Amino acid sequence: MPKKSFFKPKSPLIFIIFFAFLFILTLYFTLFNTPFHNSSTNDVLGSVRVEKNGNFGKVRIFMYDLPRKFTYGVVESYAKARGGVKEGEEGKYPGNQHMGEWHLFRDLNRVSDERGGSAVVRVMDPEKADLFYVPFFSSLSLVANPIRPGDPEGGRSVVDYSDEEMQEELVQWLEEQIYWKRNNGWDHVFICQDPNALYKVVDRVKNGILLVSDFGRLSRTQASLVKDVILPYAHRINTYNGEVGIEDRNTLLFFMGQRFRKEGGKVRDMLFKVLEKEKDVLVKHGTQSRESRREATRGMHTSKFCLHPAGDTPSACRLFDAIVSLCIPVIVSDYIELPFEDVIDYRKIAVFVDTKTAIKPGYLVLLLRKVKPDRILNFQKELRKVKRYFDYDDPDGTVNEIWRQVSLKLPLVKLMINRDNRLVLRNLPEPDCSCLCSNQSGIHTTL
Amino acid sequence: MPKKSFFKPKSPLIFIIFFAFLFILTLYFTLFNTPFHNSSTNDVLGSVRVEKNGNFGKVRIFMYDLPRKFTYGVVESYAKARGGVKEGEEGKYPGNQHMGEWHLFRDLNRVSDERGGSAVVRVMDPEKADLFYVPFFSSLSLVANPIRPGDPEGGRSVVDYSDEEMQEELVQWLEEQIYWKRNNGWDHVFICQDPNALYKVVDRVKNGILLVSDFGRLSRTQASLVKDVILPYAHRINTYNGEVGIEDRNTLLFFMGQRFRKEGGKVRDMLFKVLEKEKDVLVKHGTQSRESRREATRGMHTSKFCLHPAGDTPSACRLFDAIVSLCIPVIVSDYIELPFEDVIDYRKIAVFVDTKTAIKPGYLVLLLRKVKPDRILNFQKELRKVKRYFDYDDPDGTVNEIWRQVSLKLPLVKLMINRDNRLVLRNLPEPDCSCLCSNQSGIHTTL
C-alpha cells in the first residue's frame, strides 16, 4: 500500500517536500526580489524604481540603433583620414583619452548575462525604457578629420568628413524620433567627453543627461553637477601594479606635458618657472607621442607626487594617469570637477592647492617635502582602493560606475518631465532653475 | 548498520540534507541581500548604498535625542496656552495641516520591525548614520503661543513661550554637536512644513535637506527642488471612500476658504467675482472651524471639481483635501511646487490653468463644463490610485514616501560634502551653484 506509507507520520518524504517547498519559495523571493515587507511604491504613474535591487528594480535603458555613420562610420572615417584601415583592424576604435564612448557602446552591446553587475539593464523595446542612450561617437568625430592643413593624410578627408555636419544630422535625426519629442529630451543620455564634442548642438540637447569631462566649455544652463555626470578620462599610461612604498619613488614631484596653454592653462608656465630649478622635481615640456607616453609612465611610476595643473579646461587626462600610477596627484586647477565625487573623497587620494598659492616661489616643494612617509603610504593605499573607478576595462570599474551615476539621475529626470508638462504661463523674473549652492569659502590647500 | 544505510544511494535523508542546505543558502542570500552577481560598489570611502534593497542597502538615519522642550515640550506649551492639558491627552499632538513633523517623529520611534517598508532605517549610533534628523516641532512651535493680543487664553503664555527663542536655542544646541560641525550640516534633515517655520534661522540650516510645503518664503539659495523635499499638507477633511462616479456630484466646481489673501492669494477675490454668480458653482468665504470643515467635506464629496487658488504662498491644504475627496483639483497657482512629482504625473489627477486665463469672465466654467463624464471618471480613478501618497496614516503612505524622497538626496549630499571639503579659494564671478533649469515656455491649461 504505497499510498498509506506516503502519509505515514515522520516519513522522510514529508521533509523532502517541506524543504523543497521552502527552497522554491525562498528562491522565488530572491530571484524576483519581492520584498518580504509591503513596500509597493511601484504601482502607478511611471514610477521610479531606482531604490530596488535586481533586474526588476534596475533602470531600463534603450540604446538607439543610430544610422551606422554615427558609430562605426566615425571609426572608419578616422582610419580613412589616416591612411586607411589596416588589415584585421576593421571597426577597431582607436585608443585615446576620450574613448569612454566606445566602452559604453560596447558594454550595452554585451549580452545581458555579462552585465549582471550594472545599475542599468538594456531593453530592446523603447516603450519599456526609462532612459534613452544616444551612442554617437562625438569625441572621435571631432578629431576624425585631421584639421592641420599641412597634415600629409588630411587632404582628401577634409572633403569627406565634417564633424559639424554630423552633429547637425544627429540632432535632425533625433528630432524625428517620437521618444525624443515626447519628453523634450529630458530622458536622453549623451556622451561628449571631449570638452568640444557636440559644441555646435549642445543647446539643443542640453535637457539630456550629458556625460562630460568638465564644465569648462559649458554654460550653467547647459550642464551642471545636478543634471550631468563627470567622467574620468581613459588613462593613457600603464597601471602601476607594484606595491605601495616610497623606495622606488625618488622624484618628489613629476610633470610632463605642454607648457603653454590657453585660459586656465596659463598657470602651467608659471609653475614651470617656480619648479624647474628644484632638485628632486622633474617638469618637462612635451607633446603627445608614443615615446613621451613611455617617458611619462616611467616618471609617474617613480615619483611620489604628480602635478596636475589646469589645461585649456579644468580637467585633463593626466590626473587619471597619476591615479593608476599610485602617484599622488597635486591638483592646481581651481574650477575642476571630479568624477564620482559622491563615493570618492578626493582629499584622501590627492592634494589640492589653489593657484595663487601654488605659484608662490618655493611654496609647493616645501609643502610636499614636509609630508611624512606614513602619510604618503596612506595616500597610496587609498589610491589603490579607488583605482578600479578609473579603469574602463575593469568589469566592475568605470563603466559600471558611470551607469550607476546615470541611474541616480532618474528621479530628477522624471520630476522634470512631469513638472515641465504641467507648467502654466508665468511671469518669471528670472530663469526657472533649481539649484544646489555650495559653501563659497575655500581653503589654500587640503594638505 | 545504521551508518551504512545512511549513505545508501537514493536515501531520502540525502535529499533532506540537500534541500535543507539549499534552503539555508538561499535564505542567507535573501536575508543579507548578498547579490548573486559581483557588484561591490560599497567597499570604500563612505559609499552611497541607495541603489540596494534590504536593510543593508537602506539609508541609515539618526534621530537626534533633542532636549524635551523641542518636541513634547512644544505640545505641552501649545496645550497650556489653550487652557491646559485635558485628562488623558498628555503629550497628544494637536491635529493640524502641518502635522507631518509629528508623523515622522512617531514613525522613527516605532520599533524597526514595523518599519520594514521604509526607505530609511533608524540607527542609534550616529557614527553609522548617513543622515541626521532634527525632530524639532517647528510648525507647532510657530503657533504654540496664540499671537492675537485679545486672545483670552494668550495672556500668560506670551511670557512663557517664544518661538523665535526656540529656533535660536535649537541652532545653538546643534552648533555644539560634532556631527553638525563635521559636514557643515549637509547631511541634516529639518522639517519646516509651515511656510513660516524656522524663518529666523533658515539661513543657518539651509545646507540641510528641508522638508517644506513650498518655496514661497524661501530664496533660491535657501531651498530648491534639487536639495529639498516638498511635502503634502495633512488633509483636514475626511477621505471619500465611495465609488468613482458623477451621479452624486452635482456641483461642477467647489471652493470654500478665505476670499482675501496677500500676494499670490489676491487671485482669490478675482476668482470669486467671475465665479460667484454661476449656477452649479459653489464658492464660499469661510475661515477655519469645525463647522466649516464639515461643510467643506460635504462640498468636496459632492462636486466634480475643486478650485485650488494660491494663498499667501503657492500651496495650501485644500489641494490635498480635494485629492482624498476624489474631487478633481483645478489649480490656479502659477508657482506651485507639488509633492512627489517624480512618481506622480499631476496632469492625470488635476487641471492646471494659468492665473491670467483663469480670471477671464466665463472661461473657467466653460472649460470645465466641456469635460466629458468619461474623462472625469478617468481623473477620479487616477486620484484613487495616488490617494495613499497623501495619507499620513497609511502604512505605505505619505511617511514612507517622504523617507524615500529623502533617501534619494543622499548621493548629492555626499557629493556636496566631499566637494566642499576640498574646494580651494577661487575667484568666483557669481555664486557657486549647480542648477537644473526647466523649459520656460508654459501653457494656458493642461486640459
- Amino-to-carboxy terminus distance of chain A: 84 Å
Strand content of chain A: 5-15%
**What is the averaged pLDDT score of chain A?**
86
Order of strands in the sheet with most strands of chain A: 2-1-3-4-5-6
Radius of gyration of chain A: 26 Å
* Oligomer classification: homodimer
How many domains comprise the coordinates of chain A?
2
Of all chain pairs, the largest interface belongs to: A-B, 104 and 104 residues
- Class by SSE composition of chain A: alpha/beta
Shape of chain A: globular
Number of helices of chain A: 17
Give the uncertain stretches of chain A in residue-range form.
1-9, 29-56, 151-158
N-to-C order of helices and strands of chain A:
HHEHHEEHHHHEHEEEHEHEHEEHHHHHE
Please tally the β strands of chain A and state the result: 12
Explain this structure to me?
2 copies of one chain form a homodimer. The first copy, chain A, folds into 2 domains: 176 residues, no CATH class; 140 residues, Glycogen Phosphorylase B (Rossmann fold, 3-Layer(aba) Sandwich), CATH 3.40.50.2000. With 447 residues, chain A is an alpha/beta fold. The longest helix of chain A has 20 residues. In chain A, strand 9, helix 12 and strand 10 form a beta-alpha-beta unit. In chain A, helix 3 runs parallel beside helix 5 and helix 5 runs antiparallel to helix 7. The first copy, chain A, has a 6-stranded parallel beta sheet with strand order 2-1-3-4-5-6. Helix content of chain A is 35%, strand content 12%. At the A-B interface, helix 2, helix 13, helix 15, helix 16 and helix 17 of A face helix 2, helix 13, helix 15, helix 16 and helix 17 of B.
